[in-house]
Structures are given as structure tokens and as C-alpha cells.
User: Fold these one by one.
Assistant:
Number 1:
Amino acid sequence: MKLHEADAKSLLLAQGLPVPAWEVAHTAAEVRSAAERFLAAGPVGGKVVIKAQVLIGGRGKAGGVKLAGSPDEAEVIASQILGMDIKGMTVRKVLVGPAADIVKEYYLSAVLDRAERKILLMGSAEGGVEIETVAEEHPEAIVRRHADPLLGLLPFQARELAFAMGLGAHLKAAVAIAQGLVTTMRHYDADLVEINPLAIILESEPGGTPVERLVCLDAKITLDDSALGRHPGLEDLRDPDEEAPEDKEAREAGLTFIKLDGTIGCMVNGAGLAMTTMDLVKRAGGEPANFLDIGGGARADKVAHAMRLILADPKVNAILVNIFGGITRGDEVARGLIEARAQQTRDVPMVVRIVGTNAAEAAVLLEEARFQTASSLDDAAAKAVAASRSEGTPA
Amino acid sequence: MSILVGRETRLVVQGITGREGGFHAAASRAYGTNLVAGVTPGKGGQTALDGAVPVFDTVTDAVRETGANTSLIFVPAAGAPDAVMEAADAGIATIFCITEGIPALDMIAAVEVVRAHGARLIGPNCPGATSPGRAKVGIIPGDIHREGRVGMVSRSGTLTYEAVQAMTDAGLGQSTCVGIGGDPIIGTTFLDVLQLFAADDETDAIVLIGEIGGASEEAAAAWAGEHLRDVPKVAFIAGRTAPEGKRMGHAGAIISGGAGTAASKVEALEAAGFRVAGSPTELPGLLRDAGYRG
């Protein structure tokens, strides 16, 4: 589960990391009053920043991040950003905060290293740009250190990282932030904690001259979906606007469903086989409408639920069901298909392939109910594509 | 010899008194696997599978009383990493964890403990392994196999069955079929299994079934290109049509930042001498084309 910048910053702050102040606003009027408060504090540079809160990268380039020097200007900019479409996502809220006076930008992240099976810290003195770009153009500019798999990031490891990133002048803060990233990751079961940029900024001391401070200017956190169950509070951070209704319905029904653009609905047991089924539909000249894994041991009601999800997509004009029974019993799936068809509101051609556990019983049921069946996966894909073509594209 | 499981396997099932654990323990035993014990804390002294298998409170007890050397874990996600570490600590050499939905960071610690004990973990979120005609440890249906000399390794469950069935239908038997699991953090990688197959005198050809996400297929390909040059080998990669940034069911099956694509894996495998199939049903034919005569 991806978190918005503002929520990610809240988690970092809760773990004691330095994050400049911010407020979240949903209307231009809210942005105006937040800007008034921040500007009254007299930030270095005298401006506020307004940042679109969308769960996708490239906000700045899309015009979703802007500065304002007055409450009036903040209100105007907010009215432009709110409601803006960024790569298909509508901006429904913005983050407002004092615009930082940046001295230098860095990059720091904690990720899962699958190959080493450890948490990997990646740092770079080239902040503010995507790490993938740095990795491609200046791979030597990225510093890597693995956290200890049992103890986390040890102080000496954090020091090595800080010195290698050129943060010796801010050693104490850099060590605290690097360790804080790993602490945050472990505390909330995150897959990714990314600070880009981590920045040295100028902050005004009350009545004094500006001082340099190392802070987390932006934050990105992705949570491990498998661990959400033991962090009930974090479920509240899920943005209901960012999840399509069918995705939510599927998640709550225990199905894994990902909507795609094609016309052939797919229902499969097992993730690898579901991907393969999509690939073979494409190879046979069709376009899959979805990825759908009904999981192991699915019963008839789950199958019927899956069918409703597929048919809710008006573009779907053919359905391919591919089940390799292991834990899942083929006759259960067949019963679910028969039940689903009795309930469905529109008639869509369906090709069914059921092999493995109780396939013979399933075959009898499907034959009685006059389903079109297929023996091999390739055959099933070809038949589904042919059925989709003969239906044509619905208006 | 076969790899990981065989006639020398002495199996303990952790979670044998649960519904899944009991069902698959019975199926493994019916296949001919030497099932010596079950473990469920608090049920020590009872028996499972109609009195056929003694149940112990701890894995240590099971090892001491029965000489178990291999464990199969059906414990729910919240307790599974602990079950893995318990098995390693009890001296179990080969640990299969079927459980899915385990938080990734829990597995980082568990994998480290397993490594420190010199044990081997397969999974989690895997279907186990079968050495046809000898032993089956896990949930792969027993009747899809045929005895032979092709080593098969896969990240998936039902897709593995599909590929095994295709091989069996074509008359190509298997030495061992291993499912390594679809999670981001797993105990045994493709590369580890290829190294085991390379050292196995009863495996003459390789089938590798990968999918999008991570770079473990690429790592295995690089090694195979150097060390398995003369071994007939074929592969299939699932997820050519998967969109970027979406987790395709398996926690580990995601293309992120342009990495982990099917194209990258296919390219690496072909460069290493694998013939890559467009469908699982093409695997047997391609293996014959690669010179396999088994």
C-alpha cells in the first residue's frame, strides 16, 4: 500500500526524524489560511510551497508543485492544482509548508534487497532526481550499505554511509536519519522508505542568523500488504479515492483483481498461472481485461463473486476460466460458474478449462450446463479470443 | 540421488493437526514419503492420521524421538517465521514453508537464523518439492509427475503444475520438481536450486519457470551460462502482459522502476543458452530441440 507524502511524513515524524512543518488542505480557502500561518512565521525566503498529494511520481514536472509568496497567490495556485489530473489521478488534496531554502540535496532510501535478503540503504549526493536515473548515469554516485538482518542499521554502518555521502559536516543528524529510516521500516513493516530529497536547508533561528539543518523534505513510504493486519491504524491511511471500487470489492472478498484495458475477462487460480493465462490470450491475438486470482481452495460463492467482478466491466465480451485444481476442487468451481451464470444480468460467451483435482466431476457438471470447454491452455485462449472477436466491441 | 527430498527424507509436519496440514501430510504419506512425526504445541502425545503419526509439542522433541531431518510447515503467517526458526534450531536440515502472506521483514530475520544454523529453507509461499517415485513434500498434486531425469524449478504454484503436466504428457519424467515461492524474501533461490541440480547425477536437463519481479532469474541465468553450458535447458517466464507498478498476486511479482520485466528475464535466459517457451505446453518440444534424449 502506497502512502501519500503527508502520511509518510507523519510516520517519519513519529519515529523522531526531522521533517519541516506542513499542513494538508482540501480547498483553496484552506490553503490560503495555511499559507497565512506559515508566512506569518517569516520563513527564510518568504515563500510557501504547495504540493499535490497523488500516489504517483513526477508531480513537479506535471505542474503539481508550486511556490507562492502571499496568501492571495497561494489561493490562486491551490485552485489550479486542486482538481488537476496528474497521469490519470485527480488531485484532491495538497500539502502546504514553508518553502525550504535549500543549500544541497541528497538522496536516501531503505528498500528490501531480495537477492541479499536484507534491508539495503542507498544514499547519494545527487538528490532531487530519480534514483533510477542516477543508477543509470552515475552508478558510482550511489552508496550502498546493508542493515544487519537481526539488529537493524548499526551506528558504525550509519556513519560509514554518512561519510560516503559527504555528510560528514552533519554527521549526527545523518546517522540519526539513516537509522531512523530502518527503524521506521521495521516499525511499520514498510517495503520502501525513501527521502528524496534529503536536504541541508537554511532555517531562521528566532532573532538570529539562519542556520543549516539536515531535514527530510519529501517522503515516500510503501507498506507491506502482508503486514497490514498487525498495524490496524495504518489501514486508515488507505486513500479510498485512489482505489477503484472493483479493486476494493475484490480485496474484501479475498480475491486478487487488477483491471486492465482489454475485452477478455480471465478467472484463474494461482498468480503465476493467472499471468500466464493473460500472456496466452495476448499471444492468441486478444487483450486480457483483467488479472484475477481466486486463490487456493476457492468455493462456489467466491467463484460467483469473481464472475460478478469480471462482468461489471462493460468492455468484457468473453470470459476465460482456467483452473488447475490442487487445493482447489474443480467441481466446486464448476458449481460456482453455474450459480454465477444463473444470476448474471448479461450474456457473455465463456470458455472453461478445469483440470486437476475433481476435473472429471467438473466436466460432467459443465457438460450438463452446456458450457464451452477446452482441454489445453492454448486451446482455451484461442477459443476465448475467437469468441471475443465474434462478439465485436460493445458500443 | 534427486535433490532436497528423496528416500532419505524423514519428514516432520509442523501444524499437522490443522486442516491443511493434516490433508497434505496424508497426501505426502500416501505418495510414499517417510512421514515420521507431526508437531503442534500443546498436542504432544497425541497421534495424527488415524494413529499413524506421533505428534510432539516441539520440533526438538520430534527430532530426538524420530530422527526427522526435513520439515514441512503449514503454520499460519503470524507464527510461521517462528516455526521456521524452531525447525532450524532443532537441527532440521531442509525446511519447507508453504504458508503465504508472511510479512517480508519477518522473513529477513528467519532466513538469517536458518543460515546461521547451516540449514536450508525453501519458501515461504511455495508448493514444496517432489522427487517422483521417491518422496513428495508439500502440496504439488502427486499424480501429475512421472519418474525421469529433468530437474524443474519454479516460483509459482499452479503454473508449476501446468508445466509438470505438460512434461509428463510428453513422456518427459522429472528427477525433482521444486517450487521456491513467490515472495520477495525467500530462503532458496533459482540459483541455489540450479547449483543443486548441477551436482545431481540423476538430473540431465533443466526447466526453469520464472515470472516478473526481482532479478533472481537473471542471476540464475548468468551462472547457468557459465556452469551448465552443455545441459539442455528451457524456461518459461510469466507476466509478459503485466503492467508496471502492479503486484500480480504474488507479493514479489511486480515491475518497479522498469526492473523485473519479462523481457529482461527472457533476454538473460536466452543469452545463457536457455530456450524460452511462449507457452508451458512448448517446454517439452523445446527441450527435445535442445538435445535432450531422456
Number 2:
Amino acid sequence: MSNTDLSNIEVNQKPVAKRSNPFANVFNELVSFCRSRSMFMLHYCTGCGAIELPPAMTSRFDMERLGIQPMVTPRQADILLITGYVSIKTLKRVILTYEQMGAPKYVIGICSCTVNGGMYWQSYATAKKLDEYIPVDLYIAGCMPRPEAVIEGLQQLMAKIKTDEANSWKKYYEHYDYYLGNQQHLFGNNWQTPTDIIGEAKTYQLEGPNTLGEHTKILESVQRPLEPLEMKL
Amino acid sequence: MNQLDTLLLISLITALISGLGRRHQLIGWATAILLTVQFLALLSISSLGYGGTVIESAVNLTILGQPLSWRFDGLSWFFALITIGAAMASSFFAAGIWAKKYKKHGGNPGLLQFAMSLNVFTMLVLLASGDLLSLFIGWELVSWASLLLMVLAGGIATQWGLRYIVYATAGAMSILAGIGIIYHLTGSFAYADLAAAASTFSTTHVVVLSLLFIAGFGVKMGLLPFHLWQAGAYAETPGPGSAFLGAISSRMGLYAMLIVVFQLIGLGKMIAVEIPFTFLSLRDLLMWVAAFTIIFPTYTALRQNDARYLLAWHGIGQGGYMMMGLLLLDPVGSAGGLLHVFNYATNQAALFLAITAVVYRTHTADLNRLGGLVNRMPLTFLVLLVGIIGLAGIPPMNGFVSKWLIYRSLIIEGMPLLFVATVIGTLGTILSVYKLIHNTFLGQLRLEHEHIREVPWSMLAPMLVVATIIFITGFMPGLVLDWVASAQAALGFTPLAYTLGGVETARGSLDMIWLCGVLFGGFGVGALLFYGGGNKAKRVHQLDNYAGGHFLTADTRYHYSNNFYAGLMHHIGGWYRGTFKWLESSLISIVSLLSGLTQILFHSYHPALFLLITATLSLYFFIG
């Protein structure tokens, strides 16, 4: 496992400039505001935390008043909710799902298990810290957190999106080598997903010095490319 | 010799040339070009489509003292336009590269072209018929010509063809009986004499005659319960042939029915005929037959797993809409029925040609063995998409306009139950055409189809032309409503008041130009946001897809095509009882039982006695 701990690295943060013109960023702020107010949520219900989501979503606590709705596929989803312990087998699916989401995308880890393994600390088959494998925007700790806490967490995420601070998805592209290394450490060097993260990093213009490295080299050497399937006439 | 004679002569020459030169390599193109010449000849009498007067043929024959005459009016012209148009599209499609492959697989493309051009000629003769005798001659010619087209493929197609000819012969007997009765009553075969005498017919005569003719002509139309031959016979014909047959062939039944039952005997009389112990008049009964002709075959189509059979079953169902519209007898409904003949023909031609293109590349029409072809054959997909939108009657394609007119008329005339029945039929249509496009073009591409390409331009061009016609006549239905109005006038209906974009009546208007504008405006705003406002698009691989977090591989099928609509079938599956098949097979058993018994009696029991009985009965029949 790589020794660097990325959990505190701030990515691509623009220096807070003194604003002379109050209208300079009107459009960006409008986009961030709108983004924070309409979010589709893919809940990858792994552990016991899932049971707190139905009350949070339905009439009692009513997530939808915040503009948050469940979504069935990652392609249309903005938030990935991981609601409990993540076994190694599950983690592969979580990563696959995360990579299939379109940017900007946000990850929320619910329950103590996603923070540090929780009561599964001693398990051989459980990933302890979720943010070693995919960047996490927000943790909602607790065993399990009540719906109020979930809503509170989502509101915090909204606030972060509104102020353009929820940028962890950029971290995945900029430090892909680090995340890939941790994944390879856990799953073995043959690990690969269908999604072309390096290509996406180029598309989003987020390719940094840490995107490529020794681990991506391993990936390149083992990767079986998917056959191209373009539209052709 | 006038322009009508020229048209018929060119048509005859086309059939002769393609028949004699059917082994020649270029006969496909020659036939297609000759059909284009026919089309131009038809355009030279296009005044008929815009309210022109009837053109009488200069050819007049007298057989056994009975004069035979031929003429073209607005209705004939309208049907002839569709006939020749469908034949042109099919013929051009079949002329190029398709023919080479067909030949390689043992087919004879020249014979196919000959059969199609012969069909066109016989149909024109039928459409031009000017009295009951020439109508019957035309009818028989059409029947046998379409048999030739149906049995071309051999094998199972021959069985379907024989089944067809049994039905057709029974239908022809029924028509002949009707004509015989009319001759007995009026002493003439002329249309005018029948029309004049029809007002003096008693109720019994009206009922017997209309039932005989509707049964006879209904066989060709696939009217319930005479529909069982049609799907297989049309589907098993080689691709372009089934496009032609599907588009127009069974409409000849509708044409003949319109002439004899609607125009001459007069449908108005059927409204007066009350069926005892019911609330229905004879016309209501026919409308319900039309409604069930819509529903049952459409839902049978829903269960088909062969694309060709699915389309062919729809052909039967859509015939019900035409019948329904015309039976409504008001300007709106009859215009809808006639317009649907045109619209349906364009849709069915596009769909059958697109499916033929799929079969050309994949060698199968089995809906469980296809999928994901949109990536490989995008233009064929486009044609099929346009076709199914039209067939399902969804704007902006032309099928919407005709179905709208029929619905509108059902509401205006106050027939809510029939309206619901037609809507149920449309629901079945939408479901089954979705199945068609989903199972062939959407979803997962199969490994064995990884390397196929779009079909060549010689096949694409006719398909795209037909698809364009579907859209343009949906965008500006007034273009076709011109012809429909003169066909209505020829039939004696009040013509519909129409505009270029649709209809404008006090009780509801339709303007497709506006509708298309709004529709494409909406799409345009969406496209602008999607392509202009978003980030650069990145195309992802088909296997980079979400299935509950599974890692997808090409060797496993995730395409949900087998047992499509399982949930729906859970609810309605038990209603498919095959009643009509049972009816047909029990009829067959009875007939074969009777013939077997007679044979036993004749051969082994008392041959002399049997001969005596037969002779006595025959003598009684002829002398007594």
C-alpha cells in the first residue's frame, strides 16, 4: 500500500481571490447553485445503514424537498451513497459503479464501517478505509446514523457543492495512480475496470503529474482492451 | 387508345419483358425502370387524383353477349398510385446487390421481379374494372398472380401459398355467387344497372349480397375470421416481395369491397338492417368485425418471434382500421380509412424492406437472435424507426394523421366502445413495434454480428426514399388528402375539408405543420442544451455499462429479448386460445371426414348405389 495519505490533500483549489467585480462569477455560482439543488443519488446499499435510507427518502424526512432523488443507474447519478461495510468483493463493484458515474460526482460514506471498518475492523475480507480506494466527499459517522444525520450530511454536501468545495472527483483523476495502487494491492495486479479513467482525465483536462505512475504502468501491461464499438456508416 | 390504355399496355409490357428475360442479369433494373415508366404514365392521368373526370378505356370486349369495360376514377388512381409506388420501391431494392445474394442462395431474382410486375399488371386490371364481370376477372388474376409471388421461396412458403389459394378460391366462389344473384336480379353486370336496381332490393337481398361479397373480398383483406392464411403467406415471400404484398396486395380486397358493397349496393341500407335480438344493425356488426380484426391480429403480432411474421400480422390488423374508418361513412372517418391505405402501405414497405436489409446481413429474422444493430446499421435503424412510428400512429409520421381522423370520427359519431377497441389495438401496435425495434436494433450487439456493415446503397436508397415519404406526408398530409378527397368523391362520400397541414373542422382541427414545429422545437431546445451547453461528449463502450455492479462480458447476453413482455403475458397470456386455428382445423377435419366417408362409400361399399344416388340428385338439381 502506498504510504502517502491523500485524505487531507486539497485538490485544484483556486486561491480565494479578492473579488472586485461582484458579477464576475455570476454564471459559475448559478451553475453551482443549480447543481447543489438537483441531485440524483445512487445508493449502493452494502450494510445495515441502508435501512435508514427509506425513512430519509420517504414522506417523514423527505429528501426530495432538498432536490435529492434516487436514481437507478450510475450514468445519471450525482451522488454515490455507500451505506456500510464494504467487503473486498463488493468494493470491486463499488469502484466499477463509481467510475461509471459522470462527473461531477460525489461520494458519501455512511456508517462507521466506511470510515475505519467499524465493527469489522478485524475482518480479513473487509476494506477498512473507503477513501483509500475512491475519494470520499463526506462521511456520516454513526452505527447507524439516523435519518436526521443523513439529511444533515446531505445538506452539508449541498453547501460544499454550492461553494465549489466538493471536488473530490477531480482528485480521482489527478491522483489516479495512488487509488489504482491501493486497488491493485487489494485485488491483485490483474485488476481492471471497463472504464478508461486516463482517457476521461484527458477529456476533463484533469491529467496531473500523479495521474500516471508505476501502477498505471502495471495496468497498461495487463489490460485487455475492450473492442471498439463506434458508430460507422 | 387513351392514357389509361397506355398505362395498362406499359404494365403488360413490363410483365412480359420481365417474364421473358427473367434469366438475364439486368432484368431487375429493367423491371424497376419500366415500373418507373408506369408510374410516369400514371402521373400523366394525375388529374384523377385532383377531382378529374373518369377515364374510360377504349378497349371494349364482348363475351357471350356481355360487354366488358375498363375505366379509372379517383379511387382507382389512388390505389394504383400506391400499387406502383410499392412495386417500384421493392423492385429497386431487389434489383441491385440484394439480387446477387438471393441468386447465390438458390433464388431466382428475375422470377421475383416478374411475379411483382405481373402482380402490378393484374392489380391495375382489377382497379380499372368497369363492371362486375371484369371485376371478377381482375380479381381472379390478382389471386393467382399473388400466389405466384407467395410460393417463390418454395418449402414452407408453398404450404402457405396453398392455404391461401384454398381461402381465395372459397372467397371467389362466394363472390361468384353474389354476382350470380345480382345477374339474376338485374339481368346485367354493369355497375350502373346494379346501382339503379339496388334501391329496389329487399332486405334479404341486401343482407345476402353484402355478406357474400364481404366474405369474398374479406378473404383477401384478411378480415376476421378469414385471416389465418395471410401472415405466413406474406412473411415467407422473399423480402422485397413481402414488402410489396404487405403494402398493397390485401388492399385489393378493400378496393373491391368499396366498389361493390359501399358504392353499388350502398352501405346506407345496412344501417337500416337490424339484426334480430340485438341492438346492432348490419353496419354495427361489420364495425365490430373490423374492431376485432384490429385487436386479435395485432395482439397475435405481439407474440411473434419472427420479425417478418410480426409485420405481416400487423398488416391484417391495420386493414381493420381502414375498414373501420370507411364504415363510419362520414367525411372524416372515410378520409381516415382511405388515407390509412396510403400511410400503411408506406410504413409497411419501409418496415419490410428494413427487416429484409437486416436479414440480408444477419441471415435471420428471429427476434431472439438479433440485437444492438443500431451501431452497425444506423440508416436501416432510422428507416425502421420512422416506419414503426408511422405504424404505431405517433406524430410526426403519417400514420398518426389517418388514425387521428378515424378516432376523431369515432368520437364525433358517438361510438365510444369502438373507439376504446381501436385504442386497445393501437396499444398492441405500439407494444409490438417496440419489441421489433428493441430486439433487432437496440440493446447488446451479438458477437457474431460484430463485423457486419450497413447494407449497400442500392438497398438503402429505396428505403430512405420511402422513409422520407412517410415523414413528408406526415408533415404535410394535405398532399395525400388531395387524392383522398377525390377518391371519396368517386365513392360518393362528401369529401373532407382539408388544409395542407391537416384538417380544419368546427369539431376539432389538426395542423401537422404546427405540431411538427412544436415537436422539433422541443427537440431542438433539448439538443441545443445537450450539445451546446454540456462538456465534450465521450463515447463509452457497450460493455462499460451498469448491471447492478456486474462486470459485463461479450459472451454473456444481457439483452432482454427472449420472452419479451413476460409481465404482460402473465396477465393476458391465458386469453390466447387459438380459437380461429381450432375453428379452421375443425373445418378441415369435417371436410376430410366427409370426403373420406364418400370415398369409402363409393369405392368399397356400393359403388353402383352411390352412382345412382349422385346421378339422381344431379338430375334433380339441374332439371328440377
